[in-house]
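Support request, priority: normal
Reporter: lab tech (M.K.)
Component: structure prediction queue

Hi team, I submitted a job for Ras-related protein Rab-28 from Gallus gallus yesterday, and the status page still shows it as pending. I've pasted the exact input below so you can check whether something in the sequence is tripping the parser. The sequence length should be 222 residues. Please let me know if I need to resubmit or if it's stuck on your end.
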Amino acid sequence: MSDSEEEESPDRQLKLVVLGDGTAGKTSLAMRFAQETFGKQYKQTIGLDFYLKRIILPGNLNVTLQVWDVGGQTIGGKMLDKYIYGAQGILLVYDITNCQSFENLEDWYNVVKKVTEESEMQPLVALVGNKIDLEHMRTVKVDKHQRFCQENNFSSHFVSAKTGDSVFLCFQRIAAEILGIKLNKAEMEQSQRVVKADIVNYSQEPVTRSVNPPRSSMCAVQ
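Reply from support: The job had stalled in the queue. We restarted it manually and it finished. Here are the results:
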C-alpha cells in the first residue's frame, strides 16, 4: 500500500442507539446533536427515527455517527433487538426530574445485555442524564447516577437537549472512547466545529409496549 493510500483511509462509521422512556428527551437529544434544533412541543417517536452526522476527532479522523432514536414504547416490541444489534454504542437516557425514567433503564439495559451477550465486541454503554437545565427540579441524585455507572462500567454524561449544554461533547466523548481516542480539553473545544450533517428520518410500524408494574422509588435513597 502506498503512502497516499494510507493517508486516504476511509471514514469511520459508528452506530449509536438511543434508548429510554418516552419522555426522557431522546429525540430532542438526537435532534440537538444532528440538527442543532430543539422542538418545544413533545412528539412521540413511533418505532424509530434515524439521524446521520459527521464529526472530526483528533488526528483529523472523520467519523460518521448513525444515531438510532428508538421510541420509548418499543421495549415490548419484536424489533428492539434488531435496532440494538450491531451497535458500537448504547445511550441509556433518562430525565433527571423523573425517577421512573431512571429506574426503567434497568429494563432497557437487560434487553441490551440479552441482545449482545454473544457478541464478540461489546458496545460501549453510556448513561445520559438529560434536562440539566431543570437542576432545581432534580429527583435523581447524582450519586445514584454515578453508582449505576460504576456497577455496570457505563460512561457517564449529563446534558440538556433544550439548551444544548454538553450535547455535542457527549456524542464526541462516546465516539472517541469507542475508537480508543483520548481527548484533552483543548481538543474537545476545537472539535466542536461541524463538518457535515445529513439527516434522514423514517418511522417503523408502531408496536405495543408491555407495561411493567411500577417499582418502589429508590431515587431519594442515599
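The chain has a mean pLDDT of 81. The helical segments are 3-7, 26-35, 80-84, 99-103, 105-116, 142-152, 167-178, 185-190. Let us know if anything else looks off. Ticket resolved.
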